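Incident log, structure service

09:12 report received: a user says their structure output differs between two submissions of the same chain.
09:20 pulled the input from the user's history:
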Amino acid sequence: MAKAVRFYETGGPEVLRYEDVEVGEPGPGQARVRHSYIAVNFIDIYHRTGYYPAQLPGGLGTDAVGVVEAVGPGVTDIRVGDRVGYLMGPQGAYSDVRVIPAEVLIPLPDGISDRTASTLIMKGLTAQYLFRQVYPLKGGETILYHAAAGGVGLIACQWARALGVTMIGTVSSDEKAEIAKANGCTHTIVTSRENIAERVRELTDGQGVPVVYDSVGKDTLQASLDSLQVRGTLVSNGTSSGPVNIDALTLALKGSIWFTRPAMAHYIKPRSHMLSMAKELFDLVLAGKISSEPKQVFALAEAAEAHRMLESRKTIGATVLVP
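09:34 re-ran on a clean worker, output below:
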């Protein structure tokens, strides 16, 4: 029997159950993948708590890497033995093996291990669509990025450095500040003792920044708005501290601010585009410009504890589960 983490009601980490599941043969257009690493992302918490709709009972997670064990009829570009990762498709990545649509699988290049890839698929491609599509950075900009020592944040620090972008990153502690700087963050703001907007203005000679990437949400909304230039862009790419409520008049009064709440699903399709996004990311890794390894590793059976750690903001970088 295969093992998987499932939940039958929304709630805290305690609703997660580690149990036996049946895994059949892949049907048309499908592949069976045996996981080596499973990424833990904040979006998983959104599904577990019911903040994002979830079909119950059901599995959890959409981000993992592993090897293809079998393919169904009609699958031509994925073969048995291929190392792959994925971040789309149905929930259920918190498992040791599963059947999944082959069209969401991303072949992993030689030179990038499964362990490294487990931190790149969702988090690295999130950095790609934020920096290269939502608000395309050309180099030379100064930006504000919240949670710079998080899983996406550490990749974003390195990507900004590779692009020639000056990144101001917020962190919750001096320890995280040092880690963010070591990964390419130019300036850090320790939110427990520094005023974000005041510090941004100091660092930009009073001008503010053209774009803020804010994955924190409610707790940082005001500081994000106050850090922007006139006609700046607020990219609200997460709500780890709570939902964002903002009206159009506020955007006008703060300087005709542009506001967007992007979702990966709208930036990654079709499949050919997803593969080109992955290639850009993998090329930077193979060139030594981005380095990424998991900082916290839990057994699959310990998924609830991994969620507790992530929600407490005690983690640094990427967290993964191992079957």
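09:41 both user submissions now match this output. Likely a transient worker issue. Closing.
09:42 reviewer note: Residues 119 and 318 are 6 Å apart (CA to CA). The mean pLDDT is 95.
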